[in-house]
Structures are given as structure tokens and as C-alpha cells.
Amino acid sequence: MGPEDLDQVLKELPIPKDPKVLVGLDTSDDAGVYQLNEEVALVQTVDFFTPIVDDPFTFGQVAVANALSDVYAMGGTPLTGMNLVAFPIKTLPSSILKEILLGGLSKMKEAGVALVGGHTIEDPEIKYGLAVTGIVHPDKILTNAKARVGDKLVLTKPLGTGIISTALKAGMASQEAVRKIVESMVTLNRTAAEWMKKLGAHACTDITGFSFIGHVLEMATASRVGVVIHSGDVPVFPEAVEYAGMGLIPGGAHSNQDFFSCKVEIHSDVQNLLVDIFYDPQTSGGLLISVPSSEAEKLIATLKKEGHGHSSIVGEVVEEPLGKIRLL
Ligand code: CO
Ligand code: CO
Ligand code: CO
Fold it and tell me: How far is the CA of 328 from the centre of ligand 3 (A)?
């Protein structure tokens, strides 16, 4: 059973229509949005997963930065979080659990998010994440559905966290590579989201498990546009290219490729290893922002000053091929 099968199960649920649900399950967006009144809508999301780094405190930080990202990607402000924890309390010391939760809490503090509860179960495999509630003005929701022809696409973090984590699990990753992905994954998407809002972004999503290509395609489909990507302009961790060349590619990248490749036209000059990285599932990845062309350079210049040094204009929104990506 792959992610697309899970998606199919959700699509078959008889979910009643509710006019207060401004963004629901039907649009593959980052978070659900529910209107409370004319000024305020709730933004809600949940994410949890197994450790992708060895250090428990760092894992907690990554899990929370990743969960908060879906609220930022919708243009929202996260307010409260609830821990979701699975932990083998009979076989591992509780000090490890404490470190995970302290790591998570440190990111919630940085984001100005209050921890208000949570739930822990006993499980042979550690899992941690967060249910997040935030708010957004109903007129200022940023979905993946409003990219416009002529917009530039900006990506705020390098790709390759899945490949480097796979190398880490195989004992093949350099300390430097791991340091780089950790630094990237614990970075909140908050500042990037603030600037995209100020500069009038039309659409946004964050890059996570469906990979760069999967999330770009979701935006193209929802917005009824096409996308041109300039492969050489897409930021990637150099070590990800190296490890992909050694075959250290996670299973999820193959599923993404099987599922999405029918909607991708690849120019013959594009390096195969780069294409592998474009299908790599990301954890706590960057924002993909569709911004008016006139504001793109300003957004990049600002992001570079504000700690997103790898931000780059990676492509543009076009009319054709509709619902597809052309990789140049
Ligand atoms: Co998302
Ligand atoms: Co999510
Ligand atoms: Co969104």
C-alpha cells in the first residue's frame, strides 16, 4: 500500500459538505481551514514520524519545525500545539523521551506556540510529532491553488534530506552532510512565510514527503497551470548528489517517481542524479512560493538576509503543458 492508495481511501470517505470548511480534504493542501467569523479562520494540521536523526533533542526539533510548516505554508500563525508520542517505555530510558519533548518544546517556544496537551502511547517504535492549531484571516489564506501564469517559483531550502538520511542509516553519511540537513530541517519556515505574505505571494506549499516534483505538480494541478523548472537553479545539498550516485535512494523516492513521472517532461540535458533528488521525500523542507515576477528578486534578496541563504528562483508558471512540469 503506497501513499496514493491511502489518498484513495480518503477520497472514498463520505465527508459532508460544510460551508465553514474553507480548505478541506479534497484539495491536497497543507492544512485544513475552518472559518470562525469574518475575521478569523482556524488552521489545523497534524504530522508525526519515526526518528530520522540519532540525537533525540534534534529529532524533537525537526518534528515540530516540520509540523508547524503546514500552518506557515497556508499563510497562518500557529498558536497551540499538542504532542503526539509513541515510545517503548519498557525498553528505552525515559530520559530519551524527555530529550525528544525538550527539543520539540524549544521549537514551539521559538515559534511562540503554546504546548497545551498531548497523548502518549507505548509502542515498539519511537514516533513523535505535533497537532497544531493556528489562525489566518479568511481573505488571506494561501493555498496551492492560486499560482498565476507569469509568476516566478521560489524554493527556500535545498533538497536531499531523504537521501542524506538514508545514507546516515546506512552509516555512509559524512558528519558535515548530517550537520547541513539538521540545520536546514530545524529552521522554521516562519520568516519565509512572513516575507511571502508581505510581497503578495499568490500560492504556497511546503516540500515534504511527496518530493519537490510531487508538490510542484499538486500546485500546477490545483492552480490549473503548467510549470517550467530550471533544474540547475534548484538548490540541492551537494552530498545528496554524491549519495544518490552511490544508490542511496529511499524507497519513497521510487514511489514518488512511479506515481508522478507521467506528468514530467525532462529535457535531455538534465542530470539523472538531479532528477532522483527532485523525487526525494523531504522532511521539514522549504516553502515553494508562487510570487509575482516583479517581486521575485526582492523576495530572494530578503530571504538570503534572513537566514535562508539557499533560497532560489527555480522556475516559472506557464499556461502549457497544463498540470505538468517541464524540467529544463
Ligand atoms: Co505541507
Ligand atoms: Co503535513
Ligand atoms: Co497551502
Answer: 26
